[in-house]
Amino acid sequence: MERSCNHAGVAQYALTVEQVFHHIPLGAHLAYSDGTEKPPREYVQKRNRWERHHGCGRMSRKDFAATADSTESGPTFRLLKYADGNIFCWFRLFPLTTSVRFALLELPRPGSFLVTRDTLTGTDLLHIADCEASALSRLAITPDARIERIPPLL
Fold first, then answer.
1. Could you tell me where the DSSP H helices lie in 39-92?
2. Looking at residue 109, what is its pLDDT?
3. 62 vs 22, 25, 42, 94, CA distance in Å?
4. Domain map of the chain by residue range?
5. CA distances (Å), 42 to each of 46, 47, 50, 105, in order?
6. Average model confidence (pLDDT) across the chain
7. Which of 50, 62, 78, 91 is 20 to 30 A distant from 69 in Cα terms?
8. Would you place residue 80 in the very low, low, confident or very high pLDDT band (cuts 50, 70, 90)?
């Protein structure tokens, strides 16, 4: 799984939050931006604010209704973000009302397997496996999960 967040070369953030929610699968790697320019390093507070609205991550959850851990009402999705060296990871929640735009960086590799679990309000991505054996081993430790194969390209 790609864990770097180099999205500086993304030419266009063309996808809306609704398009991402309804058409992009779990496991996709997305970049997001509000369209503003990156402030110079010396403007620390402006730069920190800018970084909250620019980044990338792996789509790890889709919720079709409000959840207990969300202050949003209605559908949302989450991107799993990694810090340098994979030491920390955190989620960025996107409600369908956000004005942030998205760019698709990568889809799950054809022939790989998604291990997912249904929740009361949506679906969680637990693991992306390169082979069926790896997916089945993850399924053994998470019995309420299911496996979905990413179809090969034609």
1. 44-52
2. 92
3. 10, 9, 37, 10
4. 1-107, 109-154
5. 9, 8, 13, 30
6. 82
7. 50
8. confident
